Amino acid sequence: MSDQSFQTFSLSRRTGTGTTYAERVYGFLVEHTPQPICDDCIAKATNIARENINQLTSILGLTRDFGKAEGTCAICKGNKRVTRSQRYA
Description:
Strand 2 (about 65-70) and strand 3 form a beta hairpin. It contains 4 helices and 3 strands. The chain is about 40% helix and about 20% strand.
């Protein structure tokens, strides 16, 4: 997924920090490479609604830079769908 297409993602609403939701989620997952993290924990850490996180991670999970699968979240230890950055692992 190129940086240019990532920046034009449909959930590009700007936050108070001047970054888009997509940029915040992308950055959070890259910072936590290669840990698998669930949508609930991503939502809490980024202060973005869970519904928006699910849309973003579903798209990211289709790229070669990220993976989305059943697993154990590195933060809450719950067994659920998790997303992880694979690019920088």
